Amino acid sequence: MSEKKLPSLHVQLSEQEKEALAEEAFQKLKESLSYIHKEEFFEKLEKAYHYAKEKHAHQSRHSGEPYILHPLAVAEILAEFRVDPSSLIAAVLHDVVEDTDTPLTEIEEKFGKVVASLVDGLTKIGKIKFSSKEERMAENFRKMILAMAKDFRVILVKLADRLHNMRTLKHLSVEKRKRIARETLDIYAPLANRLGIYGIKSELEDLCLKQLEYTIYKEIAKNLAAKKKEREAYIEEIKEILETELHKYGFTHAKIFGRPKHIFSIYRKMLGRQLAFEDLHDLFGFRIVLSSIKECYEALGIVHSMWKPMPGRFKDYIAMPKENLYQSLHTTVVRQNGMPAEIQIRTSEMHNVCEFGIAAHWSYKEKNRKFNASELEKFSWLKQMIEMQNDLEDTNEFLDALKVDLFDDEIFVFTPKGDVKQLTAKSTAIDFAFAVHSDVGSKTVGVKVNGRMVPLRWKLSSGDIVEVLTSKTQKPSKDWLNFAVSSKARNKIRSFLRQEQRASSRKIGKDLLTYELSKRQMSLDKIILNKKIDLLLTESKENNYDDLLLSIGYGKINTRELIGRTFFKKEEDENEIEILPPTISEKKDTSSKKSSGVLVSGLDNILVSFGQCCGPIPGEDIIGFITRGRGVSIHNKTCAKALDLDPKRKIDVAWTNEDEDEGNHTVLLQVITGERKGVLADVTVAIASCGVNIKKAQVRLSPNHTGILDFELTLNNLEQFKKVLRVIQGIPDIICVERRNKVKKR
Ligand code: MN
Fold first, then answer.
1. Rounded to whole angstroms, what are the CA distances from 179 to 62, 130, 193, 640?
2. CATH fold of 380-477, please?
3. How far is CA 318 from CA 194, 198, 637, in A?
4. Mean pLDDT on 671-688
């Protein structure tokens, strides 16, 4: 439905009328800000008002009113929460960058860094387009908004902005109204709830219901209004009974409130319990507000002695506050006439938190306010804010402390279509590609972030729009493992690389087998045809044809020997008849221990090399991998690089007698020390005392004045290395001793 088809709701206002309306709204705002006593603030506010009015001069609201009324109203809503001056200025300016092409730098020049950063956050959130109805998606959006906002005040201003838009929806098309209401109900009302701002949450919910389920909304509202007098009398009656009873026990200062529940919560009750309006009896909530927690529990006792509590309805949110800091005692009692009444008991401080949520803690006070320990524990970041609140003047530092990473460990990014993908922090472009689909990931040739080409190792941040470019001929590369963070991407890349390795090894295996058979005037095809392949499998102890080809291809099997043993047993020289693979213990005496110090299962005189990545030393658990052309490479059992290799290439290995080793194993060691003269000498002497050779040493000083000593040692075995660690740890002022890998840590 287009806007034009609607009957015109526009009021034609003259320039003077517009000016008068704006001026009136501004005066009203100023009155609501009596809690701020700083002259400079009102000067700045005045400046922001005129600036925003000028910027929005050519815009008007759908009602025909001047646009500036909206930001002023948003600031006025925030005044109820007693927010700090910067949030108020940001509220007045909140649509300037988004709607009028004003650069952010101009805001910063005129109104300072803090305000500019708040406006920036609001502009960013304004750009988020909510496209899916899915509940899971909605949760991601909420998290994303929190993650992107960083500063809690941004969300507060955004909620006020949304509340004012919801209050003034009536001039929009039905379609637009429904879309905005849906989004509000899915994203912003739960966000307000999460932050414990029940005042905004309830109003948003009612306004949404009015748009989305107008008939039901109207009916509940009508029913509530119908017996208004009756209900008011009922509320008064209960209030009086409670008051009399509490006074008897000396709680003369108790404040008692009674009011109908908000429409949306009644609607939810009707829906949840499948009841008609007439059958709902707990339409009212009563609140008793007292001055201490002790009094709350005492008052609860009084209430329960007057009326019977309904089983299962008592909840102690004082002892166990909700996540959003909400505290209160909840109980439902049944009166003598059989009618239930819901009663909440809390202190006035808790009452404040309930109305304003976190905003209550955050509200602007010119004097410091004390918070109790449990409140602070709940939100350590809240603590930071409050502590920094004392130095409101130092804007930069303040802003820094306010950066709230509510979701440190995850980021939220978009596909070009607007779908949200949740990734772990530090995820790169390639992780995103695999998150979209493994086929997309595997075929990635390039990635655009926010419209710009970036390298695949590019680190993503929340709010990025990421587009993946693919090509049919692209294949995952080993290099990708250096920057892929997510386990999904890493696993897919690894498994692809293994597949590829296998395919080529299988082909080599087949070629080799064919070649060796042909030398004996045999053909592989005929052997398969005559089912003689089983003989080869039995002899080689391989499970199937594929495994056989792989083992040949990887070099685990000596093909000529195998063919000889299988088909020409009698003719072969007896020496060559040996069962493969021999176990290590059997081979101990005859195998090559020349220089490597490692025994390789089933293979004699094979070239052995040590993994550069982990540099295993005798005594450690090791595994071997067959490499083409470079013999067997030996890795630590826990080596990350070894994990990337095909398990099919794995081969059993063991150390020879460790004592006989010649001591040419290199180990990298890093020692972090405190600031003390002579500590380096102590460490080198200690190393030498263990009979270990220092090949290289490097000394650096870190920015926080700790010494970083890097050693390259050559030693014989694990025992010796452990001794070095022990001796170094015994030196005073040693902060940490650690073995390092040559390969940079991921
Ligand atoms: Mn706005």
1. 16, 10, 20, 50
2. Ubiquitin-like (UB roll) (3.10.20)
3. 18, 17, 52
4. 84
Q: End-to-end CA distance of the chain: give it in Å, rounded.
A: 54
**Catalytic residue (one of 19, 24, 54, 99):** 99
Residue 422 alpha carbon to ligand 1 centre in Å? 27
Q: How far is CA 670 from the centre of its chain?
A: 32
**Does 579 have pLDDT greater than 70?**
no
Q: Ligand 1 centroid vs 444 CA: distance in angstroms?
A: 39
Question: How many residues would you count in the chain?
Answer: 746
CATH tag, 224-362: 3.30.460.10
Separation of CA 335 and ligand 1 centre (Å): 47
- pLDDT tens digit string along 224-246? 887 778 878 888 888 999 999 99
Q: How far is CA 520 from CA 517, 533, 539, 562, 573, in A?
A: 5, 15, 18, 12, 16
CA–centroid distance, residue 72 to ligand 1 (Å): 10
What's the CA-to-centroid distance between 185 and ligand 1, angstroms? 17
Q: How far is the CA of 31 from the centre of ligand 1 (A)?
A: 21
pLDDT (0 to 100) of residue 742: 62
If one counts every other C-beta atom within 10 angstroms of the C-beta of residue 383, the result is 15
99 catalytic, yes or no? yes
Q: Could you tell me which CATH class the domain 15-212 is placed in?
A: mainly alpha
User: What CATH class does 665-740 carry?
Assistant: alpha beta
**Candidate list 40, 80, 84, 98, residue with the active-site label:** 98
Q: Does the pLDDT at position 603 exceed 80?
A: no
